[in-house]
Amino acid sequence: MIYPIPSGTRDVLPDETREVRAITDTLRGVFERHGYGEVYTPALEYETVLGSRADMAEAQPAYRVFDETGAALVLRSDMTVPIARVVATRYPTAEPPLRFCYFAHCYRGVRPQRGQPRELLQAGIELVGAPAPEGTAEALRVLCAALDATGLKDYRVGLGDASLFPSLMAGLGVPEEQRKGLLEALERRDFVELGHRLAAAGLQGEAAEVLLSLPQRRGGAEVLAGANAQVEEAVTGLRRVRELLEGDVAERIIFDLGLVRSIGYYTGAVFEVYDPALGAPIGGGGRYDELLSRFGRGLPAVGFALGVDRLHIALAGEERGTGALLAQPAGEPSP
Amino acid sequence: MSSATGLTIAVPRGALFKRTVELLTGLGIDTEELRENDRKLLFEEIGVITMRPSDVPTYVEAGAADVGITGKDVLLEQSAHGFGDPAQREVYELLDLGYGRCTMVLASKAGPDPAHEALRRLGVMRVATKYPRIAARHLEETGRQAEIVEVKGSVELAPLTGMVEAIVDLTATGTTLRENNLLVREELMVCTARLIANPVAHKLKATRIDELLERLRERPPASAG
């Protein structure tokens, strides 16, 4: 008799558990060394507290149950919002910055037949009360130290700014009512649709060209050099983060002026981790300077989450010299 | 693996194949074997893998190919609710290649529209299609109740046998529809070939992908077809 488990969930048996445990122990050691204390929070929270907001996109809580009093509970979809709640309620007067790390299962809705996890183990940190650029640089430093410690070799960190494209649209005089549609096209990475929408919005010439080409710019510091005046603030912010980073961390950075994350609470710098052994990002994060104020403690904050299973796959792929992009022509030619 | 582009390209067999091979030839890729051997799937020496068009987004999303070419119809069908739905494949859509131009249409038997009659009297129209998501979305958006019947083969057969009142299908010239006495009632969208990229490759192989894009943009504009 086979007793099924829901698609997107897994039993983890001793051989795999041993490997996963080695990864999480390594990460925990790095996080603790940098002053990030581990927290647990409940997997179930009140829907009214965790919220069910359209801007959470794919991180929107997908599972709801009712408790014995009829109150709606949700299974958490990430750890950033619960930790924001912890900071506001358990540390209402504590002197910032506050540093937390976590290893927690989160729950997401899945699309059928896509191998997406319904339950995923995330490892991450939240740094609360440390503004940009210093806080962002610290988060990136911890991120790279943690990945280095696991033995991952070829990863890169894409760094962009969530405010960049909105500032660009505002600066170039895109009518208010057109902005949402343009941002949606960019979020889907559909540059053909973005071009069509720019034309439909009556934008022509240089403005349309910039709106279409700037978010496709990614690479080294030269990407920042040629950016337009309208995005000066975001670009200066990115440059200042870069200046604070030590050489080995700075070398990992790919500036990406089109980086947007589907979770709506990000306000400033955002980043994603890429490794050639995996076709999808291993994790990511960014600044969420306004989220805490929703819970009554308006502190700037930054954090990241790594998908432990994805990290495991990337490590195994690097070790075997196989994996998504590895079976292909070697990386970028040197300039 | 080495190739003129330094990338692995997912190439669709079928209607888009010929023009795609021409495009690759124009990029300086030696496509002779690709043209002559239609059983081989993996052409490592030129960085090409071949597959049916609907599989292209799957391979590109997984990173098994850095970039790929497929129809907009495929991309739309694989996003559960079309524009704005988060179920879209995690691929970057970089360029409209212009060829493979087709129209997605709703068609029914010539004469008085049987779909109209079914809606009026029975409250629901039956629609056969290979594109159940695109069809469902279109009918939902236009406020009509429909029962979608997914078929894999010749869609034109379904209304002729009375199984359904209408079809949603892709048509290039309309000849097959006309030969089967079917009339285009609505045009949903125009679909062309698109260049898509894996999100990680888009960052880690940025220079090569941008070079490819540049060369594709500079090529002479595609003639119809």
The total number of structural domains of chain A is: 2
Euclidean distance between termini CA atoms of chain B: 32 Å
Rg result of chain B = 19 Å
Number of helices in the DSSP assignment of chain B: 10
Beta-strand content of chain A? 15-25%
Would you kindly provide a written description of the structure presented here, covering whatever features stand out?
The complex is a heterodimer of chains A (335) and B (225). With 335 residues, chain A is of the alpha+beta class. Chain A has 2 domains: 16-162 and 217-324, 2-Layer Sandwich (BirA Bifunctional Protein, domain 2), CATH 3.30.930.10; 164-216, no CATH class. Chain A contains 13 helices and 12 strands. Chain A has helices spanning 14-33, 47-50, 80-90, 134-150, 164-171, 176-187, 191-200, 205-213, 222-225, 232-244, 247-250, 291-294, 308-320, and strands spanning 37-38, 44-46, 64-66, 72-75, 98-107, 119-128, 156-161, 218-219, 253-256, 269-274, 283-287, 301-307. In chain A, helix 1 (14-33) runs antiparallel to helix 4 (134-150) and helix 6 (176-187) runs antiparallel to helix 7 (191-200). The radius of gyration of chain A is 20 Å and the shape is globular. The termini of chain A are far apart. Mean pLDDT of chain A is 90; it is low at 329-335. By secondary structure, chain B is of the alpha/beta class. Chain B has 2 domains: 9-101 and 192-218, Periplasmic binding protein-like II (D-Maltodextrin-Binding Protein, domain 2, 3-Layer(aba) Sandwich); 102-190, D-Maltodextrin-Binding Protein, domain 2, CATH 3.40.190.10. Chain B contains 10 helices and 11 strands. In chain B, the strands form 2 sheets. A 6-stranded mixed β-sheet of chain B has the order 2-3-1-4-11-5, with helices on both faces. A 5-stranded mixed β-sheet of chain B has the order 8-7-9-6-10. The interface between A and B is large, with 36 and 38 residues.
